[in-house]
Every structure is written in structure tokens, then in C-alpha cells.
Amino acid sequence: AESGDLAGLRFVVSAGPTYEDLDPVRYVGNRSSGKMGFAIAAAAARRGAEVALIAGPVHLATPAGVRRTDVRSAAQLRDAVFAALPADVYIGAAAVADYAPRAVADNKIKKSSDTLVLELVPTPDTLAEVAASPSRPRCVVGFAAETQDVEAHARGKLQKKRLDLIAANRVGVQGSGFESDDNALTVYSREAARTLGPAPKTRLADELLDLIAERLRA
Ligand code: PMT
Fold this sequence. Notes:
By secondary structure, the chain is of the alpha/beta class.
């Protein structure tokens, strides 16, 4: 990681979970802490990039030199990401909900029967939309959070969403993925695979940026 090597480049980074509201007091969410995406935003800014960070609900301080927009839901995340384009690079580190409740109840849902069925509908896929948009960044990088068959699922997302790179991590185990300070990534392009870590997310952020910088130079 050379200092200033990303000067003149614009990055948009998403981080953290999304919360999909059910009623005024409840939501469907996930375990993302935002650490991975915030580490990437911090490292890119330190290396001279102009960085817009779109953050779901997390308890993290805004990294130095980063322009931050807070969002709650997958729909809000999509709008904030598109408002931050154009950019040279989009990195989707957020754990975006794939489904959200069909409707948000105006009042607190009452306990009334033995079972309760939630109807969920698909959310917008920001990563796929960014990759397909007329203002597509030169480099679109996804993450893949998997509990099994990591490589097959990651390569599937790389192709289907038309990404340049996808960083796959194992979730549901200690020492990587959600919440932990450490992670291990396998970064796939169409041509190659590179394993990074296990290491602190702060170091993996710089190593991922090295791979991105390499592609931008090529
Ligand atoms: O936040 P931490 O606690 O540090 O944890 C880090 C992390 C595990 C959340 C992170 O490393 C990670 O893997 N982020 C992506 C999590 C995820 O939602 O993966 P996915 O395989 O479901 O989604 C694939 C890609 O599509 C992701 O880049 C995601 O941002 C994007 N996506 C998914 C659904 C959707 N509706 N819109 C999207 O943009």
C-alpha cells in the first residue's frame, strides 16, 4: 500500500447491515457490524481516494476524510449509493437484506395467535444494479458471505451480477465474517483467485485495495 496511490479516484463503499422494519418497534436485520466496510473506506481515504461511505445502522465512528451517509433499509441503501455515483470503484461490503416485509405496519403488531406468518418480498439488489447501470464504475467489487460451498457461490455471484471482483468470506464461524475484528477473504476475478488472511480487517482492507489498484492500472 503506497501512500497516495489512490489519489484522484472516487470510491463508493457500502457497509453494515440493513434493517427492514416490520412495525414501529421491530425489524428484520443481520449481524453485520460494519467493521469490514469501514476498514475499506478508511484505508482508501488514507491512500488519497475521495470516499463516499454508505452505512447501515452500526456503532462505528466515521473514518477520517470519508463522506458518510447513514441509511436503514435496503431501499435507502440503493438510493444513497446511486446518489453517490459516478465513481471509479464501487465496493459492496454491506450485508443487504435480500427480502423485506411486504408492508410496514402502522402500529405495533399485537400478540394474538399461536403462529405468525411474515410475508417478505425481494429488495433491490444494489450491487447488480450498479454493475448494470449506465454510470457503471470501472471496477465493481462485491462480497459473498457464505456458510458453505464458498467458491461455487462466489463465482456464481461474480458472473450473475457482472462483477470485476468478488471477495468471499465464510460466515457463521468464529474468527471471520460478521462481527469479528479478523477475517479471511478469497478474492475471485474471472481469471484468478487470491487468498488474503486470516488477518485483521484493517490489513485485509489494504490488501483488497492493492488488488483493485492493480486492476485499475492494467
Ligand atoms: O460488517 P462486519 O461485521 O465487519 O462483517 C463483514 C461482512 C461479513 C458483512 C462482509 O465481509 C460481507 O461479506 N459483506 C457482504 C454480506 C452479504 O450480504 O453478502 P451476500 O452474499 O448476501 O451478497 C452479495 C453481494 O451483493 C454483497 O456485495 C452485497 O452487498 C450485495 N447485495 C446483496 C443483496 C442486495 N439486496 N443488494 C446488494 O447490493
